[in-house]
# Entry
Amino acid sequence: MEYRGYDSAGVAVLDGTIQVRKKAGKIANLDALLAQSPLPDTGTAIGHTRWATHGGPTDSNAHPHVSSDGRVALIHNGIIENFAALRAELQAQGIEFSSETDTEVAAQLLGVELAKGADLADGMRTVCRRLAGAFTLVAIDALQPGRLVAARRNSPLVVGVGDGENFVASDVAAFIEFTRSAIELGQDQLVDVTAESITVTDFFGGPAETHPFEVTWDTSAAEKGGYDWFMRKEIYEQPKAVADTLLGRYTPEGALTLDELRIPEAELRSVDKIIIVACGTAYYAGLVAKYAIEHWTRVPCEVEIASEFRYRDPIISPTTLVVTISQSGETADTLMAIRHAREQKAKVIAICNTNGATIPRESDAVIYTHAGPEIGVASTKGFLTQVAACYLLGLYLAQVRGAMFDDEIHNVMNELAATPPLIQEVLDRIGQIREVAARFVDTRSVLFLGRHVGYPVALEGALKLKELAYLHAEGFPAGELKHGPIALVEDQLPIFVVVPPQGRDQLHDKVVSNIQEVRARGALTIVLAEEGDVEVEPYADILFSLPKVSTLLQPLVATVPLQMFACELATLKGFDVDQPRNLAKSVTVE
Ligand code: M6R
# Structure
């Protein structure tokens, strides 16, 4: 099983007893350990690569985790949200833990069940019923050779059906070399596997419906999970990526917790200015965040392009909170901005996707986005998860400062938590965007309009098109067009318009008027508007319906079709979508 990363790795085999080798760092470190200390060839083995969440990337935190009686070895993807209570319960029974992970709780719980005489599958079902959060678990029992059990909730698990051998994995890529026959497990299901048998049940031992399928792509495409581009794969990963950003941040008592935010609350209460600093797509995420953060915290929030920041002698004091956003965590412009801010005694919070990168290391605190590795040079899930993480930070500041009532925070958190399936809804209709791209494949220029949070979405849509399809593309605030850029509008010019949800203010109607202004000058309008927005329909040459969300959350659904438009257009033009010309994934020079 693999997670988002590669900060440690480990394997366990069953050979009379359980034997484990695990090592922090890249898989090469584990390889070296195995060369020094080889494992026997056995028929039953589990392996895992880790991206640290609970506990740093150390040898002891690497998976597999073994129960204290040495009987169970277990690997885990996801986050067990109630691990602290379970850990305390197990410690009260005298069980000693050897790692800081949430995962070890599951290994120890299973050990306890087996010690009571439970069968491996029954024991695992009992454990699963006690866990909250997201997990894929795979376990082996020293006393039951040739058998493993795996279970899933909110985290993927597939079974590979071989000939005299079977597999379980987080993704078919792990076993495609050996078999293309696979079974996808449903929510809250457990699979009991031997070389000859595969039995799937629900968490109560009842029968379960499974979904067998044949994998149609080969090993070379495996890394991309069958997609032609990493970018496309990453666009499709966005519902899960946003869910992972939000996972475990909200306690059942209604308190927001940001584990990696280590700045005393008193200091956060004294903040009188927030400056968000970032580059490219991350900067646009910051522009979106400004609207929410100011609205929720009532603290003035500036957003600054990192490469401009320190050269203008910005006004920074110890009560300034600098928030840096970086997917890679290695962007030199952003790093230099952090160093400058800290020299001026500001506190710096990094929002970052890469565990242990330089930017989080040099910041006072970090909120990880947990989006998983982003390989395509064009940032996609990076953007959505950065927006989600900024919103968490805004709500957290509002909570600490008493700027919002608990029920208000609760309502926004509920809305945020409801967005992943809505993003999926957008993806389910994305075929329409393919047709739009085919229609405009020969266009030389595209404009993007938006207002309020729709404006940075327009900027992001234009950036995607520039970097992937090498087209002239510009994003504008829709109301600003009449002050000059409307001169660019000519017959048949495609213009994307992000229409705000129909709300109490006049924002929606103003944008509808802006659409009419450009149509009157011959533009072809591709309108992104919420379902049921009949007012805008007559002015849309092409209408793409977005799920209903509140204005501040609209970027999480409205950006997706724009990402896909750029991906499709570049594909149709025969360009390399994952590695566009002149660009690099991490820009480590100023
Ligand atoms: O790794 P970072 O988030 O710091 O990168 C910032 C920009 O270089 C990055 O977002 C860039 O604009 C992307 N290629 C946009 O798709």
